[in-house]
Amino acid sequence: MPLPLAQASPWHVHALQRTAAGPAEPLAVPPRMEWTTRPGLGPGAEILGTDLRRKRLLELGCGPGHNIAHLATRHGAVATGVDLVGLQIRRARAHYGRLHNAAFVAGHALHYLQATNEPYDAIYSVFGAIGLVSPALLLPAIAAHLPPGRLLAFSVPHPERTGRSSSTDDRPRRDFVALPDHTRLPIARWEFDADRWTDHLARAGLTITSAQEFPDLRRVPRPTTLLITARKT
Questions:
Q1: Domains and their CATH numbers in the chain
Q2: Tell me: the pLDDT tens digits for 55-77?
Q3: At what angle do helices 135-143 and 194-203 cross, to 10 degrees?
Q4: Per residue in 184-208, pLDDT tens?
Q5: pTM for this predicted structure
Q6: Coil, strand or helix: which one is 21?
Q7: Are 46 and 210 in contact (CB under 8 A)?
Q8: Phi/psi zone of residue 123: left (φ > 0), alpha (ψ -120 to 50 degrees), beta?
Q9: What single-letter DSSP state applies at residue 43?
Q10: How many CB atoms lie within 10 A of CB 43?
Q11: Distance CA 95, CA 84 (A)
């Protein structure tokens, strides 16, 4: 028996509303990879490397699979997407299940990493699991699957996007998921600035290589996206 919406995961409710708004059907592969809140703003797949052919990539929190489809088709990568919400994975398979080298798995990001020994050339997250799972647990699990020199890249909501300052401790903050129907549901999110992310990455054996801020000037003048890359040491 399905859970009432009031008891369901906010991410499941979000996926339900997205599915109701548009059928899960085959889609054209997106022309670029997006890291920010505004399509076309900022870098694309080059963040993950200049030549991704046959490279093994893992996305934590793949949603409906748009980035996985782009990387597998436009760049020849062997790309796997993991998402907590089974409905999202069903949508991703309906959209892009026909594509070679693209796989979609339902599961918790941390549990998936703990259950496999597979190494990856790059692991990434676009407003996905990073920041929504304890960094003290998730970052070491990610590092365990990256050989030395391999890449972690992730974008997260900028902690100053709503006008408040960055977290001064390692506890999660109360945040909200904006649903397609314009309502909001509460979640917990770890909201760090680049310096605090640097500290957490270092504890996991990862060295930060870049931290970029991007605004969405259609909404607010403050930065809305923080994009970080790091290498396994």
A1: 45-221 (3.40.50.150)
A2: 999 999 999 999 999 999 999 99
A3: 60
A4: 999 999 999 999 999 999 999 999 9
A5: 0.93
A6: helix
A7: no
A8: beta
A9: -
A10: 18
A11: 18
